[in-house]
Amino acid sequence: MGIPIRAAGVDNLSDKAAMMRESLQKSQSITDNMVSMLGSFDHRLSALETAMRPTQIRTHAIRRAHENIDKTLKAANVILNRFDLSREAESKIIRGPHEDLEGYLEAIENLRSNIRFFTNNKSFKSSDGVLSHANNLLSKAISKLEHEFKQLLSSYSKPVEPDRLYECLPNSLRPSSGSPETNAKNPSSHNDRITAENAVYNPPVLIPPRVLPLLHDLAQHMVNAGNSQQCMIIYRDTRSQVLQESLHQLGVEKLSKDDVQKIQWEVLELKIGTWIHFMRIAVKLLFAAEKKVCDQMFEGIESLKDQCFAEVTKGSVAMLLSFGDAIAKSKRSPEKLFVLLDMYEIMRELHSEIELLFSGKACKEIREAAVGLTKRLAQTAKETFGDFEEAVEKDATRTAVADGTVHPLTSYVINYVKFLFDYQSTLKQLFQEFEKGDESNSQLASVTMRIMQALQTNLDGKSKQYKDPALTNLFLMNNIHYMVRSVRRSEAKDLLGDDWVQRHRRIVQQHANQYKRIAWAKCLSIQGSTSSGGGDGGNSSGASRALIKDRLKIFNLQFEELHQRQSQWTVPDSELRESLRLAVAEVLLPAYRSFIKRFGALVENGKNPHKYIRYTAEDLDRMLGEFFEGKT
User: Fold this and answer.
1) Where is the stretch described as Disordered (predicted)?
2) Among 303, 325, 379, 465, who pairs with 400 as Cys (CB 3.0-4.6 Å)?
3) 3-state DSSP assignment of residue 254
């Protein structure tokens, strides 16, 4: 059974293999047929392509011709448009900028665009002629533009009236009614100066905002045309003249050193006060407003912005600074110190604003001129300090005060020193110009102490003019007491210190004691009579009575002479005057009462007792109350 089954399987495999061979043969036949067909198509396509090539070449040529025609037409259209632009620009330029400035500026820009176009396309047959015509037209256009720039700038450039400037100031600095020069407020106290520094200023509008963009465009076109220098000259000549006229109307003068020397001090002091006021107005209002105009007009034109501002303002700055320079270089005198400090102070106050306004490279000379004046004022003020110290010590006025009161030099120097302390912060800044760090404070103390010592030295010399040594001591007592009292009541106390005050109070007391000892020594010697007298019987009593009478007679004469003379002397300070009277009374009245109590009876029992005992102790006390009143 197993064999037949195997035979059947082999037969099946054979059938399948035969079928596969048959299929492969058919597939190969089909493939051969397809290859033959494709070969036939390739042959026919190659023939078709060969037949179509001439047509394709003609079609491509036609397409390129059309493209070339389009390009040519477009190029021609561009050129024609350029010619149209040139004709329109020429028409507007011939009419000029006055009627339609914006259209005129647009025409110039179109003309420049055409010049660039034909410069880059010189292959055109007529490009050279077109360029020549366009450049000539542009030159005429710029010339008219310069004229328009000048006319427009001039028509809107007017001096600023003083009243308008005063309205821009803070209320605290506005002058009252009347002449600006006589009413300009000059802050002098410390608080006033702080207010002036922190006050809000509103710079005036110099050129209407609607006009500035037009002027900017005009300037820009001039610069683009290579006419920067001409633009700067027109701007400088127009604006600088207007700025100087504004200052002139305000009252600013250009004075030389010789002019200053000829002016009386009262007038010069007034001019210095107004100059300080004018400096604030110039820097904070006029120069600030001019800077704003310049920045807006030349925005984006950096080459001109700083240069034009410097050119416009340098003449006005020089005019203002020349006055300060003339004062700094004029003959020094003590009364000029405070105006020098005022001038130095305003220059310090304005320093940061000047540095900011004139920050450009072109403004370097202006900045240096301002700093130079500040330093010269500081140097002159410092030298005036030295002059004052020397003048105080060497003051040779021979006019003595007959009544021994406070000498005019003393009150002058003390007031001078007290006034200096209104400038304490300014003085510290001034000394910092020459000293470093905290030494400026000690420098001020040192200067003040030297001035006080110079005064004391001079007073010692003046006291020797008195023939009466009692009056010498009274004079020194009065003057040094005035110095001490003034220092104690001022800021000078903090600077000179308590040691200085206590030391000089002791000097006052020493002179008071010396006065009392010298002036009253003889009167107080009445007590010496008590050592005489006594003895036996009437003779000794007679001798004692005669001696007592003699003592009383001498006392009366001496006291009356002192009263007559010293009631003409003066102790101006009421406390010191009462203290001195009391010091004399405390010694004189007890001695007199004791003498009268012990020996008065000897005289009263004799003839004409009132001839010798003229005064009671109360009379003497009342008469002492008339001493030092300066009566004639």
Assistant:
1) 169-191
2) 465
3) coil
Tokens of 518: 């010298």
Name residue, tokens 């290859």: 35
Tell me the per-residue pLDDT of 395-450, one tens digit each, with 9 for 90 and over: 877 667 889 999 999 999 999 988 888 888 888 888 888 876 566 567 888 888 99
Q: Which residue has the tokens 């047959």?
A: 125
Q: Which of 303, 126, 277, 165 is nearest to 222 (CA)?
A: 303
CA 167, CA 344: separation in Å to the nearest integer? 26
What amino acid is encoded at 319 in this protein?
M
Cβ atoms of 592 and 620 closer than 8 Å: yes
Does an H or E element contain 286, and which?
Answer: none
**Cα gap 161→206, rounded to integer Å:** 11
C-alpha angle with apex 262: 418 to 385, nearest 5 degrees?
Answer: 25
Examine the pLDDT at 119 and tell me if it is beyond 80: no
- Tokens for 161, please give them: 């009236």
592-598 — which CB contacts under 8 Å span 24+ positions? Answer: 592/526, 592/555, 592/617, 592/620, 593/617, 594/527, 595/526, 595/527, 595/529, 595/530, 595/551, 598/530
How far the first Cα of the chain sits from its last, in Å, is 186
Give the number of other Cβ atoms within 10 Å of residue 533's Cβ: 17
Contacts of 221 (CB under 8 A, 6+ apart): 105, 108, 109, 142, 145
CA-based nearest residue to 549, from 538, 541, 539: 541
Rounded average pLDDT over 199-218: 92
Token pair of 271 as six digits: 């001019």
Report which of 393, 377, 385 is spatially closest to residue 334, judged by C-alpha positions: 385
Beta carbons within 8 Å of 348's beta carbon, 6+ residues apart: 374, 426, 429
Lowest pLDDT segment from 128-132, 144-148, 393-397 = 128-132
- Answer whether 440's CB lies under 8 Å from 432's CB: yes
64 pLDDT tier (thresholds 50, 70, 90): confident
Side chain identity, residue 112 = R
Contact assessment for residue 459 and residue 480, using Cβ atoms and an 8 Å cutoff: yes
Tell me the C-alpha distance between 525 and 506, whole Å.
27
Three-state DSSP class for residue 160 = coil
Q: Which residue has the tokens 């009631």?
A: 567
| pLDDT, position 580 | 95
The per-residue pLDDT for 515 is 95
pLDDT at 157: 95
Quick check: 316 and 240 in contact, CB under 8 A? yes
- Of the candidates 500, 405, 415, the one whose C-alpha atom is nearest the C-alpha of residue 459 is 405
Task: Report d(CA 377, CA 343) in Å as an integer.
Answer: 7
In contact, 444 and 495? CB cutoff 8 Å: yes
Tell me the pLDDT tens digit for each residue of 484-519: 999 988 888 888 889 999 999 999 999 999 999 999
